[in-house]
Amino acid sequence: MTSPMYAHSVPVFKQMLMALQAILAQASAHAAAHSIEPDALLQARLYPDMFALVKQVQIAADFARGVSARLAGVEVPAHKGQEKSFADLDTLLVQTVGFLDGLSASQFEGSESRQIVLRPGTPKEKRLVGQSYLANYGLPQFFFHVTTAYAILRHNGIAIGKRDYMGAY
Fold this sequence. Notes:
The protein is mostly helical.
């Protein structure tokens, strides 16, 4: 039997990251077809105090890797956040899905009660058990950034819809 913690994390992250990869490819093609400078989309925001598209994608990938790694009990892969193009974001998402593919369901056994410490040793340190970490922190954060990336592209005229957002399931 597959660990419920695995089933509710890795496959969900992969589905949404691959959908995000597909809509970014559509955005790149749209920019090329309409002679739009890619940075007009890559640096687009929904509001001035929000992160741009590039950062939204980076953070979504960070959450997918970080949450999965912590639940699996492995080191969180380092990421420099240097992406500047659609091709860079595609590479980031491919690498992130590759990392997720390298995790096994057995690594998640017992993770629902594993203690997860966020920002250890800082004033913002927070301790959560695995179940709460996934359900109440990790997944909501991940979906916020994926949804915001989708909304930025949709707001900027990319012809995508709910089916594109959801990807294959």
